[in-house]
């Protein structure tokens, strides 16, 4: 009887050990599945920019929104996802929504130069060169960029401010903008158009 009881006890202990092992394995598998299933925003942001370059703005917006919803990032931050979504809406000509998302990016990162760039382009598209200049200046104060100075030069030219337009062109040249000669021609043309419009208004 004693031997039978010992065998039964050992069997039960072995069964319990097996069950504990099985349970631990199941928990481990579930954790791995959860981790693998985690949708990190970085990949969605990357996919968003890829689709944006391809001109598929619906898919781009989808991925940027997924990145924002995930809230999980490795190398990037959530403001990068808002930047991407803002730029996508800019290309879609949804200017109010583009401005809204760019401002969302700035709420999360006050020195987001890309968000200021997008806001500047939004104002430019809406014909508000003064606000566009304000945004591009803020961008340039955070991070100098040839394209920023190009955009700034065009807005100053539209405002008829030849001095500031030339300063912006010179800054673009200092940063080695590749098409500086063509840019100077375009700026001069816009300045001449601006002068003609001003003269026409004064004559009226």
Describe the structure.
With 204 residues, this protein is an all-alpha fold. The chain has ten helices and no strands. Helix 5 (95-108) packs antiparallel against helix 6 (113-125), helix 7 packs antiparallel against helix 8 (146-158) and helix 9 (162-174) runs antiparallel to helix 10 (180-203). The radius of gyration is 29 Å and the shape is elongated. The chain starts with a helix and ends with a helix.
What are the SSEs and their pairings?
Blueprint lengths: L1 H36 L3 H14 L2 H14 L7 H14 L3 H14 L4 H13 L3 H14 L3 H13 L3 H13 L5 H24 L1
Distance between the ends: 120 Å
The SSE string, one letter per element, is: HHHHHHHHHH
Percent range for helical residues? Answer: over 70%
SS elements, strand count: 0
In short:
The chain is mostly helical and 204 residues long.
Q: What labels would you give this structure?
A:
single chain, 204 residues, mainly alpha, 83% helix, elongated
